[in-house]
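Hi U.,

Before I forget, here's the chain from the pilot set. I'm dumping it here mostly so it's searchable later in email.
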Amino acid sequence: MRPTRSVSWLTPARKVFEAFPDGARQIVIDALSVAAEGGMAGIAKPMKGIG
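Structure:
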């Protein structure tokens, strides 16, 4: 596993994120870590209907 940068947050987004329950925050952090590595988390879904 290669080292990745930490998430850069906009202040309003971080405040909302910190209000999530602990379990939900861990799921989001895990998914962001997978995305930072170039993968797609199991909970992620591709956007449809754009373009």
